[in-house]
Design a protein that fits this description.
Strand content: 25-35%
Radius of gyration: 22 Å
Oligomer: single chain
CATH architecture of the largest domain: 3-Layer(aba) Sandwich
Number of domains: 3
Structural class: alpha/beta
Shape: globular
Distance between the termini: 62 Å
Number of helices: 10
Largest sheet: 7 strands, mixed
Strand order of the largest sheet: 16-15-14-17-18-20-19
CATH superfamily of the largest domain: Vaccinia Virus protein VP39
């Protein structure tokens, strides 16, 4: 490891979380630094007793250092290539590297793959890379080179999409665009269903890859049911409901663009199928007057809280939207309800949903407790990585 890296020394007692391999150093834990690192620089972290703890990317904000190695090694091209190889080998073992039915998956999941600040989703040959830290942004070209070497012919293009995810305090002027290859195939398959993905202007990396297994579960519950897919985005849950034999499926989203993409995707998979219709409407408003219309409702709203300071309002939002669903769903109905807010814990989410059930006065039983799929692994030392929470509820 280069000796000229800035050394960050922690206050007494603040080294314990790093000794338990938690990859974040909070700004309040820092005693002093040997220099003035720029945002994104690699720094070495030491305890108050000068014990080496790890090397990571420095950033301005509450999380001051994201640890990339707990060993004192050279963080160079070979280091990053080995990290990507490890992530790719896991996906191979999960069956994603040669799967004719599913060719969209998460290739790198930040802390879950020991690469904090980096997300890479794989779309039928195109890797969409998203940096959440300046440190990862600065080495994007090196990461692309490593992706090319590790994936070989499986990789056709790399699209960089970090303009809206880089820390605003860093004042980085980032442009989205192709770092390797060019305009590529935008159709992907998930369990045999076809999706058009817009990674250039769509939400996140273009598709909610993390709901794959939960969408598949909807298929099992959909037969002969009348289904409402609220906050539908590109309509993923709707397709699985139709595949599962639903009587009718209504997809609702406030975004006209999302509605058009849903309509296009449904027609692509179920041409001329009259069971499906779309509505552009506010979710809270739509749920006001639909009593007994649906007996399967999916609530998959965007993150109500992206920061801890918004937690209280977010919990109120989850309570409100679920109360509406409980009040409106037909007796004997099934409710799939989710939170993708990392700051909302499983217990807090369950509490909000249970309160909603009590307000609505319904008898409710838990059928499933859901989370993210295996290609979104959770680092056992970083429980915050389990961001997706879901419940499947039977409502009498």
């Amino acid at each position: 490891m280069s000796a000229d890296l800035v050394q960050v020394s922690l206050k007494s007692g603040k080294e314990q979380s790093l000794k338990r391999f938690h990859p974040w150093v909070f700004s309040g834990a820092i005693r002093d630094m040997s220099g003035n690192p720029a945002e994104g620089d690699l720094v070495k972290v030491f305890s108050n007793k000068n014990e080496f703890l790890g090397t990571g990317h420095y950033q301005i904000g509450s999380i001051a250092v994201r640890i990339v190695s707990f060993q004192d090694v050279e963080v160079d091209y070979t280091f990053w290539k080995q990290k990507i190889e490890s992530a790719w080998k896991l996906r191979e073992k999960l069956g994603f590297s040669d799967n004719s039915e599913t060719n969209v998956f998460r290739l790198i999941h930040g802390e879950g793959d020991n690469m904090p600040g980096l997300i890479v989703d794989f779309y039928n040959g195109t890797a969409v890379m998203q940096a959440h830290s300046v440190g990862m942004h600065l080495i994007r070209e090196l990461l692309v080179k490593a992706l090319q070497e590790v994936l070989g012919d499986a990789l056709k293009a790399v699209y960089y999409k970090s303009d809206k995810t880089l820390p605003y305090k860093a004042n980085i002027d980032s442009e989205d665009g192709y770092l390797y290859g060019s305009d590529s195939e935008t159709e992907v398959k998930e369990y045999g269903l076809k999706f058009k993905v817009d990674w250039e202007s769509g939400q996140k990396t273009g598709f909610f890859v993390d709901q794959r297994e939960n969408r598949k579960l909807v298929e099992q519950y959909a037969k002969d049911r009348e289904v409402l897919n609220m906050f539908c985005y590109t309509g993923g849950f709707s397709f699985y409901a139709m595949k599962g034999g639903a009587k009718l499926v209504h997809s609702v989203d406030a975004s006209e663009k999302a509605i058009e993409l849903t309509r296009e995707n449904v027609e692509h998979n179920f041409p001329g199928d009259k069971r499906h219709d779309v509505f552009s409407a506010d979710g809270f408003e739509y749920l006001k007057n639909i009593r007994d219309k649906y007996d399967l409702i999916i609530l998959d709203p965007p993150a109500f809280a992206k920061h801890r300071r918004a937690l209280t309002q977010a919990l109120k939002g989850y309570k409100r939207i679920n109360t509406r669903a409980f009040e409106q769903i037909r007796s004997g109905g099934v409710l799939f309800t989710f939170s993708c807010s990392q700051v909302v814990t499983k217990d807090k989410f369950r509490e909000a949903v249970f309160t909603a059930a009590a307000i609505a006065g319904r008898k409710v039983r838990i059928l499933h407790q859901l989370t993210q799929p295996a290609d979104h692994p959770v680092n056992i030392y970083h429980p915050e990585g389990e961001y997706l929470k879901g419940l499947v509820l039977y409502v009498e």
